[in-house]
Design goal:
The chain is of the alpha/beta class and 324 residues long. It contains twelve helices and 14 strands. α4 packs across α5 and α5 crosses α6. It starts with 6 loop residues before the first helix and ends in an 8-residue tail after the last helix. The structure holds adenosine-5'-triphosphate and magnesium ion. Adenosine-5'-triphosphate (ATP) binds next to α2. One of its GO terms (molecular function) is ATP hydrolysis activity. Belongs to the ABC transporter superfamily. Keywords: ATP-binding, Nucleotide-binding, Transport. This is ABC transporter ATP-binding protein.
């Protein structure tokens, strides 16, 4: 056997991370700079959200991490070993779901998994059926297991791809937009599954263009825009970096908006009985008093916790719906 993934070495260097990239860059043949000098560190045991709008370079990065495409420059280490050079040593420990899982449409979901399991030389054939049944059950596909994969909906295909990634215990799961095509119930199920896997000690690296999804399930996140990393760290710290919004609930929104502007509150937006603005630096009690003095009937007054979206907007100065 060649090199083994370096679990011991990692704990000896806690800063090293399960995935570490340095100046990782990909320029496609057409000239498109899809990933630009990426320094990424994914801590062991984290649920790491890789967040960015469409076209920001998430899938390209994941394809480089999995050794599917070569970087133009820079390095990527997965489980302590360089990729793509150590792909054969690393990949058996990594479960991956990447855009459009490769499935045989003419086979049932169950037979697709049996086939994939059989392709794994380390998988014991005697326990194959049980392994496949467990994986199908974990992703909620048991009832549809006998149906041909070509008759699966997009969400069912995603689930089958996920089941394939779960066929054996993994140290790292890499999931590219795992909730793509799923309805809200399906998205909840995947979030629960990700939390379960993480509590078993698996590091989960998942990409998404949905900010609230990342906030709900991830311990850490990195934010990409146009191929560049703009921030990474614990989710709580990322959103703490942005100031929250002042929210006033009132039956007099027009007056409230006017008074807030007079009080120096920026970006005032009135919608229904809610008037919001950027939380000012000054004492909020004064702002509240000014509203009351002006005869505004204040039913609610407070600062909403900043979301990851606020942090993104604060960092990039643009909304989250940009394309690369
Ligand atoms: N094979 C390719 N050849 C040329 N350009 C590509 C190729 N694949 C992706 N790109 C370009 O690279 C950039 C990043 O694409 P990528 O698929 O990595 O983004 P993404 O963040 O995964 O987006 P999405 O959220 O839509 O999945 C985009 O501008 C895209 O058009
Ligand atoms: Mg993608």
């Amino acid at each position: 056997m060649g090199e083994a993934p370096a679990r011991e070495q990692e704990s000896a260097h806690p800063g090293d991370g399960v995935v570490v990239t340095r100046a990782l860059t990909k320029r496609y043949r057409g000239g498109q700079l899809a990933v630009d000098g990426l320094h990424l560190t994914v801590p062991e045991g984290s649920v790491f959200g890789f967040l960015g709008p469409n076209g920001s370079g998430k899938t390209t990065t994941i394809r480089m991490l999995m050794g599917l495409i070569e970087p133009t420059s820079g390095t990527a280490r997965v489980l302590g070993l360089p990729m793509p050079r150590s792909a054969r040593a690393v990949l058996p420990h990594v479960g991956a779901l990447i855009e459009g899982p490769a499935l045989y449409g003419f086979l049932s979901g169950r037979d697709n998994l049996l086939r994939l399991d059989a392709a794994d030389p380390t998988a014991d054939p005697r326990t194959r059926r049980a392994r496949v049944a467990t994986a199908l059950d974990r992703v909620g596909l048991t009832a549809a297991a006998g149906k041909k994969a070509k008759a699966y909906s997009l969400g069912m295909k995603q689930r089958l791809g996920l089941a394939a990634a779960l066929l054996r215990p993994r140290r790292l799961l890499v999931l590219d937009e795992p909730t793509n095509g799923l309805d809200p119930q399906g998205m909840r199920e995947i979030r629960t599954l990700v939390r379960e896997l993480a509590s078993d000690g698996t590091t989960v690296f998942l990409s998404s263009h949905l900010l609230d999804e990342i906030e709900q399930v991830c311990t850490h996140a990195a934010v990409m825009t146009r191929g560049r990393l703009i921030t990474q760290g614990p989710v709580a710290e990322l959103s703490a970096g942005a100031r929250g919004r002042l929210v006033v609930t009132t039956p007099d929104p027009a007056d409230a908006a006017r008074v807030l502007k007079e009080q120096g509150v920026a970006d005032v937006v009135a919608a229904g009985d809610r008037v919001t603005g950027e939380a000012p630096e000054r004492d909020l009690a004064e702002v509240n008093a000014a509203l009351v003095r002006a005869g505004v009937r204040v039913r609610g007054f407070g600062v909403e916790r900043a979301s990851l979206e606020d942090a993104f907007v604060a960092l990039t100065g643009e909304g989250f719906d940009v394309a690369g």
